[in-house]
């Protein structure tokens, strides 16, 4: 069966404009944990020192098999963070979970995370969370595409709740700029970032795919490269989607598109890296009753078995 998926530019250049957003509040603001509160780039140095190396090698192996999986992993990471924070709730696979939501039907890359998790469970069991795996894998996927590398603060725990209707609250891809501006303040994301979220959540692109084609290139110039060329194409009115062109023409959002189109690529790269760190720090779950280290990323851990044997006397 042929699949119709976004090319790297769809998921990385403009779609991930959302991830290059400037979050409206700093890391230490309510609802966003700072590194000193929980997360650290050296979190697994003692408990699982090879964790990030394992994640990178696995991500690289999958990338070599199918380069589009890199963009898919970044998209999967964003879908996870956009609902309940980066808690791996998007990975939970049961009826009425985020993963089963209508908005999630084109998500890919679950097998990549499962493969990485299986390897880590053999190397250091019950240690590395699925949320951290997805966060680090998204960073490595960006780098494999030629994008920036950044220190990914780790130490997240996996959420126990996943609700499909929450995932379905995201924009559908047909909203105008005003609708998007109204939606994203609730996520503490500034206007500079919501543009790409529309791409991340635009779930009807498959309708524009030709039956004989596997891909739709939103950037005909450099479709396999992490760069800002797509923003330049919007300035030439070459955006595939009308909603993209509106982001360029709307006076409230046009300056952000123009900045990335006209400034050196390093600006886009550095802002993307900084914003990815901020994005990954939103609403990190910490209470033991609300989070855990999953043994299998698809399911919450089974409840501990109670001792039903009566105590022995004498």
Automatic annotation (TrEMBL):
Top EC category? oxidoreductase
Listed under catalytic activity are:
2 a phenolic donor + H2O2 = 2 a phenolic radical donor + 2 H2O
Q: Which UniProt keywords are listed?
A: Calcium, Disulfide bond, Glycoprotein, Heme, Hydrogen peroxide, Iron, Metal-binding, Oxidoreductase, Peroxidase, Secreted, Signal
Source domain of life: Eukaryota
Q: What's the record's note on cofactor binding?
A: Binds 1 heme b (iron(II)-protoporphyrin IX) group per subunit. Binds 2 calcium ions per subunit.
Family matches, as PROSITE patterns: PEROXIDASE_2, PEROXIDASE_4
Report the EC code(s) recorded for this entry. 1.11.1.7
> CDD domains this protein is in?
secretory_peroxidase (cd00693)
**Which InterPro entries does the entry mention?**
Haem_peroxidase (IPR002016), Haem_peroxidase_sf (IPR010255), Peroxidase_pln (IPR000823), Peroxidases_AS (IPR019794), Secretory_peroxidase (IPR033905)
Task: Name where it's found.
Answer: Secreted
Binding-site residues for Ca(2+) 2, renumbered to this chain: 219, 222, 227
**Residue positions binding Ca(2+) 1:** 80, 83, 85, 87, 89, 98
Per the record, what is one GO cellular component?
extracellular region
Q: Does the record carry Disulfide bond as a key word?
A: yes
Record-listed substrate binding positions? 171
Pfam families (UniProt xref): peroxidase (PF00141)
Q: Where is the active site?
A: 79
Q: Where is this site: Transition state stabilizer?
A: 75
List GO BP terms, alphabetically: hydrogen peroxide catabolic process; response to oxidative stress
Listed cofactors: heme b; Ca(2+)
Locate the Plant heme peroxidase family profile domain: which residues? 38-301
Function (record text)? Removal of H(2)O(2), oxidation of toxic reductants, biosynthesis and degradation of lignin, suberization, auxin catabolism, response to environmental stresses such as wounding, pathogen attack and oxidative stress. These functions might be dependent on each isozyme/isoform in each plant tissue.
| Family in the record | Belongs to the peroxidase family. Classical plant (class III) peroxidase subfamily.
**Protein name (record):** Peroxidase
């Amino acid at each position: 069966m042929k699949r119709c998926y976004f090319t790297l530019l769809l998921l990385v250049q403009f779609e991930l404009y959302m991830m290059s957003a400037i979050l409206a509040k700093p890391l230490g603001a309510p609802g966003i944990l700072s590194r000193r509160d929980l997360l650290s780039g050296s979190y697994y140095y003692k408990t699982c020192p090879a964790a990030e190396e394992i994640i990178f090698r696995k991500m690289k192996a999958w990338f070599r098999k199918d380069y589009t999986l890199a963009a898919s992993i970044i998209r999967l990471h964003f879908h996870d963070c956009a609902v309940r924070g980066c808690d791996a709730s998007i990975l939970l696979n049961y009826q009425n979970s985020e993963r089963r939501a209508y908005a999630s039907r084109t998500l890919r890359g679950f097998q990549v995370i499962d493969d990485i998790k299986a390897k880590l469970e053999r190397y250091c069991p019950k240690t590395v969370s699925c949320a951290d795996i997805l966060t680090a894998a998204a960073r490595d996927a960006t780098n494999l595409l030629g994008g920036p590398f950044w220190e990914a603060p780790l130490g997240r725990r996996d959420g126990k709740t996943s609700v499909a209707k929450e995932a379905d609250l995201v924009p559908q891809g047909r909203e105008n700029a005003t609708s998007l501006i109204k939606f994203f303040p609730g996520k503490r994301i500034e206007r500079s970032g919501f543009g790409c979220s529309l791409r991340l959540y635009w779930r009807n692109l498959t309708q524009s795919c030709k039956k004989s084609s596997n891909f739709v290139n939103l950037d005909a110039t450099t479709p396999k490269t992490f760069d800002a060329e797509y923003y330049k194409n919007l300035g030439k009115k070459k955006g595939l989607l009308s909603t993209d062109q509106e982001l360029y023409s709307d006076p409230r959002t046009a300056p952000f598109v123009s900045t990335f189109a006209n400034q050196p690529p390093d600006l886009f790269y550095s802002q993307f890296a900084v914003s990815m760190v901020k994005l990954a720090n939103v609403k990190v779950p910490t209470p033991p009753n609300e989070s855990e280290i999953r043994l299998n990323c698809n399911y919450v851990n089974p409840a501990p078995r109670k001792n039903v044997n009566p105590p022995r006397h004498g």
